[in-house]
Predict the structure.
Amino acid sequence: MESCPTKPTSKELEGEKLILLGNPNVGKSVIFNYLTGKYVTVSNYPGTTVEVASGSMTAHGKKFKVIDTPGVNSLIPMSEDEKVTRDILLQEPSAHLVQVIDAKNLRRGLLISLQLLEMNLPFLVILNMWDEAKSRGIEIHLENLSKLLGMPVLKAVATRKKGLQKIPTHFRKSLSASISIHYPEAIEEGISRILSLLPTPLPLSGRSLAVMLLSGDESLSEWLHQNLSDQAITKIETICRETQAHFAEPVGYLINQARLRKVDELLSQVLKSTGRPSLTFATSLGNWMIHPIWGIPILLLILYVTYQFVGVFGAQISVDFLEETLFGEWLLPPLTRGIQSLIPIPWLQELLVGPYGIFTMALTYAIAIVLPIVGCFFLIFGLMEDSGYLPRLAVMTNALFKKMGLNGKAVLPMVLGLGCDTMATMTTRILDTEKDRIIVTLLLALGVPCSAQLGVILGMFSGLPIYYLLIWISLIGGIIVLVGYLAAKVLPGKGSDFILELPPLRIPQFSNIVVKTLARIEWYLKEAVPLFILGTLLLFIFHQTGALNLLEKVSTPLIVHFLGLPAKATEAFIVGFLRRDYGAAGLYVLAKEGQLNEGQILVSLVTITLFIPCIAQLFMMVKERGWRKSLMITAVIFPIAFGVGGMLNLFLRLLGL
């Protein structure tokens, strides 16, 4: 019986669930889109910034909610993505599971299979990318694998929809597994002791939970405190310490080694190589992309294309048309005239179409300025994601970001920040830990100019000697590296390990890219646009109460005496909070009028580059990191921006510049 995409209702989604899980880059999203069709919801998992997609399908005459979990390398979480997937299994023990495995990387997938078996959860195995495995001379005996796992196993080529029609008729079937893993004696004793302390009933097998605890799974702490007394938790902690005392190596490592030995035992019974390794162009290109020499020009080319598409086409061409033509000429003028003629109340007119109006600022910013940039990013991110280049990009830049306490995954939001920092802040979700996300959010807000601001800045430097531009680049780059390094030392929590599986390069499927892009744009419209409206309302209130004028008066001494700039520059910094390029444009006008000399231009541009983020980015920070963290980031940026600007002003004065 084939699945049939149907639009879900809230009542229907309370029924049975089908959960897709597997390693990263195994094709889960393609299978998810096939099963659910176009009616897909993408939302953050409660309490996290991790996106989980859900939809519905019909099978066996019933409707099922389908959940696409984040990719994992282990169900003993080492990242927020892995914790979310494990928590979904804890909360939905009766759901039907479908594990998607890359047929070329069976060893990696079977490691997850063993953990599911240990949890005593039945599941259907989909060996995806079967064609790529065959092209590499890999032969897998499906019947043997199915008997050993005690679970149904299907082969598939998801991008061509081959084999997917069998999923609805097999996901309810389960056989009887005969696999068991025996750990070292001291670990088995620790498992038995912990089992006697666990409550009943349990969402998963007690043995699997005991193994997680012995492995040092700190993410189970909340579950333990909800289900056990403090005395029982203390006993479990003691058992974990006593078990670890028997070994020189971490217990978690020994548990993983025992599982890998069992996986290798399974592989010896089901895997056969025909000795026909593939030497395709895609394989060679994939190797060149991570080569220490040839990978660099390829990296620069792809970053250039990304910047051109997102930063130039999205942030300049598309924004110019939407903001100046569609909104500026076609929509807003007649709307303004209509509101002014139909609504005689002045303050209400200003609220709707004034300088800080809902239509003239909030919706213009959200739809005409940010949406085209976000849409372009979603599209090119989907292409990078489905082609397999994203992991290679991270590999090539890992060494640089390691100096800032990050890893190579940070390159994407940092580069895309040159298109739009608001959108780039949202992409920090791809990073593995909250600590990494906070650091990159801080660096984006601190020193990465968006394309619109960067264009104005480069225009101002074009009339100055080249060494002024080099000073600006050196200062901004040095501050980013230094702040990133210090933040990694100061912020609590662990950074993420840089472990990535490199999938093969492949041609992305157009339909899959479109579905992903539309789902992400729908999220933006639902989640981000209301923040623009809220921010505009606050500015409207400040403007009406005179708070904006007061802020300008308070800021003038800092601008004039510390930075050495004319008082008129205060307006540029205030407007720069509304939109970055507006602030830079204000400085550009002052320089053009002769109110700024060469040294003042350099000081002003360094300061406004490091200045607090624009209001759109601030509200996106609030959405992603929360109010407290966003205000702390802003509190750090403000003194850095003016401190560096003031010291630069003093230094230039000493040099007579």
Notes: Strands lie at 17-22, 40-44, 51-59, 62-68, 96-102, 123-128, 138-140, 153-155, 271-273. The chain has a mean pLDDT of 84. DSSP finds 29 helices and nine strands in the chain. The longest strand covers residues 51-59.
